[in-house]
């Protein structure tokens, strides 16, 4: 396989972000190329070249040659019919993920599907069944925190135990509801609100780092919640807070504090250098924590396809995270009914 042709369905913030990412990967020598895009809201090249939406994480500012190098497909079916497209990135609203990903797998495409793959365990299981029936096609969920600068450094410190065991882990992901496509994001059943769309980042990271919890306690509502997770072994204190109910002027803040026995790692997206390691009376900024993980996760998927190795994040990982989210959703609902 000399080069992977990539098609992207959905041109909101993440779709355009991944389009730019694929182009950057190609320019850096990775065996991939952005071939085509499609979005039922984009019908001509003037719309295609218009400025996209703005997300929580600042964009790189790199432009794509939409006019000359990327084909605008009239429909998703025409994209799937293109033999020179090997990979499809599904970046559409959450309720469409499973159906579109299933169609792409059946059409012989590898699939990268944005998070959350689905809000319900049963929907992810439906996609897993399709994927199992087509083992030659790789499927990877977009759980970006596994690849995020600073967070990957924290994982290395946890794994090599250089600062001792983890005593506590505190995650905070706070902001206002996305200003784009508010009819979707404001619909809890469609987007999952902060619980399903935002909090899932931290839940996936927690599961990948500490394993499955033995107990989950969630309080709040889908737009602002805090969850406490208990584990048989590992840190005695793990909490994750997520919110979409802050005023827009507050901005977006992504924070994690990992307290080791002999050091404290503190990540705050609002800082120029997000990750700082505190040890004794010394605080050391970690320059490698600057940037985001979107291109890195795409690179990992491209390399897993080329090497015919399993992707670093799987549908089973998405399933585990969805099970935790479902438990939390039920607890939040029960709490609201009782109040």
Main β-sheet, in a few words?
8 strands, mixed
**Beta-strand percentage?**
15-25%
Name the helix and strand elements from N-terminus to C-terminus, one letter apiece: EHEHEHEHEHEHEHHHEEEEEEEHH
Q: CATH superfamily membership of the largest domain, which one? A: Dihydrodipicolinate Reductase, domain 2
Write the CATH architecture name of the largest domain.
2-Layer Sandwich
In the CATH scheme, the class of the largest domain would be Alpha Beta
Task: Describe the fold and architecture.
- The chain has 2 domains: 154 residues, NAD(P)-binding Rossmann-like Domain (Rossmann fold, 3-Layer(aba) Sandwich), CATH 3.40.50; 158 residues, Dihydrodipicolinate Reductase, domain 2 (2-Layer Sandwich), CATH 3.30.360.10.
- The mean pLDDT is 93.
- 36% of the residues lie in helices and 24% in strands.
- It is an alpha/beta fold.
- The longest helix has 24 residues.
- Helix 1 crosses helix 10.
- Strands 8-9-10-7-11-12-13-14 form an 8-stranded mixed beta sheet. A 6-stranded parallel beta sheet has the order 3-2-1-4-5-6, with helices on both faces.
- It is globular.
- Helix 5 links the parallel strand 5 and strand 6.
């Amino acid at each position: 396989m000399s080069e992977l042709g990539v098609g992207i369905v959905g041109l909101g913030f993440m779709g355009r972000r991944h389009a730019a990412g694929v182009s950057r990967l190609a320019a850096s020598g990775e065996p991939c190329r952005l071939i085509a895009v499609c979005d039922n809201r984009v019908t001509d090249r003037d719309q295609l070249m218009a400025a996209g939406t703005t997300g929580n994480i600042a964009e790189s500012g790199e432009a794509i040659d939409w006019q000359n190098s990327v084909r605008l497909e009239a429909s998703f079916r025409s994209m799937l019919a293109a033999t020179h497209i090997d990979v499809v990135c599904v970046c559409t609203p959450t309720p469409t993920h499973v159906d579109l990903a299933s169609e792409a797998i059946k059409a012989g495409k590898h699939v990268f599907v944005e998070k959350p793959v689905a809000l319900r365990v049963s929907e992810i299981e439906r996609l897993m069944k399709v994927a199992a029936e087509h083992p030659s096609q790789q499927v990877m969920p977009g759980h970006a925190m596994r690849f995020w600068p600073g967070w990957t450094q924290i994982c290395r410190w946890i794994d090599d135990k250089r600062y001792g065991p983890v005593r506590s882990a505190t995650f905070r992901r706070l902001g206002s509801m996305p200003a784009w496509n508010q009819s979707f994001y404001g619909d809890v059943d469609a987007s999952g609100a902060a619980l399903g769309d935002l909090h899932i980042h931290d839940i996936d990271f927690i599961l990948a780092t500490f394993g499955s919890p033995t107990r989950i306690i969630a309080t709040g509502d889908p737009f602002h919640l805090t969850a406490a997770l208990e584990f048989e072994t590992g840190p005695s204190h793990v909490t994750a807070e997520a919110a979409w109910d802050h005023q827009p002027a507050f901005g977006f803040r992504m924070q994690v504090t990992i307290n080791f026995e002999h050091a404290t790692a503190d990540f705050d997206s609002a800082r120029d250098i997000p990750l700082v390691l505190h040890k004794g009376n010394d605080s050391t900024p970690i320059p490698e924590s600057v940037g985001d993980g979107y291109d890195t996760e795409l690179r990992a998927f491209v390399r897993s396809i080329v090497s015919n190795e399993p992707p670093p994040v799987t549908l089973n990982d998405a399933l585990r995270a969805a099970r935790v989210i479902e438990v939390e959703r039920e607890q939040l609902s029960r709490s609201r009914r009782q109040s």
